[in-house]
TrEMBL record:
<dbReference type="GO" id="GO:0005524">
    <property type="term" value="F:ATP binding"/>
</dbReference>
<feature type="active site">
    <location>
        <position position="254"/>
    </location>
</feature>
<feature type="domain" description="Fido">
    <location>
        <begin position="165"/>
        <end position="327"/>
    </location>
</feature>
<dbReference type="InterPro" id="IPR003812">
    <property type="entry name" value="Fido"/>
</dbReference>
<feature type="binding site">
    <location>
        <begin position="258"/>
        <end position="265"/>
    </location>
    <ligand>
        <name>ATP</name>
    </ligand>
</feature>
<keyword id="KW-0067">ATP-binding</keyword>
<dbReference type="InterPro" id="IPR040198">
    <property type="entry name" value="Fido_containing"/>
</dbReference>
<keyword id="KW-0547">Nucleotide-binding</keyword>
<protein>
    <submittedName>
        <fullName>Fido domain</fullName>
    </submittedName>
</protein>
<dbReference type="Pfam" id="PF02661">
    <property type="entry name" value="Fic"/>
</dbReference>
<dbReference type="InterPro" id="IPR036597">
    <property type="entry name" value="Fido-like_dom_sf"/>
</dbReference>
Amino acid sequence: MSSLTNPSLAKSLRQYMQSTFRIGHGTVSPRSLYGIQVPELKVALNEAYHYKIGANEFDPDVVFPEVLTLSNQLSTILQQLTPAQETNAPGAIPTAHLALCTAIFLGKAVEGPEEIEETKEEFQLPYHKLLGDISPALRSYREIAQHARAASYIIVQLCIHDEDLSEEIILQAHRILTYKFDAETTPWEEYSGVYRTDEVSAGLRPFPHHSIVPFKMKGMVRDLHSNVKEAIAKGTLDPVSIASKYTHVFVNIHPFIDGNGRMCRLILNSMLPKLGSFLACIGGTEEERIVYMEIASNGGALEDLYGDLDEDEKPVMYKELGSLVLEYVKESMQNLVTTVLS
């Protein structure tokens, strides 16, 4: 597995965020999103978000404008960095403060999984902080390295190279993420970067039959691009709602034998900056992970309850997830603005 070829993801992403369109101000980046002029954002928040996260009250009418202000503030700050500040500024991904992830995002050579010994001091890094990951299986330096490589790959493709999310990008990111790591019952060579060929379930809830996974993934990607173009044309593009919707769709397809949760969050954390220069770190504490899993489970239960209805009859099943993501976008953006200014 080759090391990251991009010279510095952190620097490239900062430059990307400097030039992005400013949501809510009716302006457009030099590289208009999806090739379409982006008008001023207008979003019906009550149709996209819940007013509760679990048992806690949540007000998207207050939080959403704050997120837009933070995004525009960050863009202005990054545009005004001096050359010295540009060199020393932290990466645009809050979790890149980990030594290993920082090295990978800066394009430095890092040993691959087969060369790293578990006796190394870095083996004890707090894995759960990496991009908000919540998987208890990520306990080693090698797994963190592959997770960071996969994150770098998918963010570079979507944001720096301006590619649309595709099945090929998803499969390659999964291939990088799971390289040299066997699943519980399957060698990595058989499932890495390959849609599952077995049935899987979460408790008593089965996911779609493996025979229709390729069809559902093609539909997910097609619908994503259609939704984005339609939203931009109408001036209703909401990066958080769209990213939440399609990570919800992805996790309920559950296309892989292993790594679906991590891939879900990698997709979320690449779509947010592509669609709106937003960032979110989810699952940094045990409490956060419990809430995240409960909300994901609630969304899955709604899929079971309303899955047979026509699309125009279904409720919005990712509204609570959208509220959770929006809350973490605000927190992550606040932390990043503070860090860049410090």
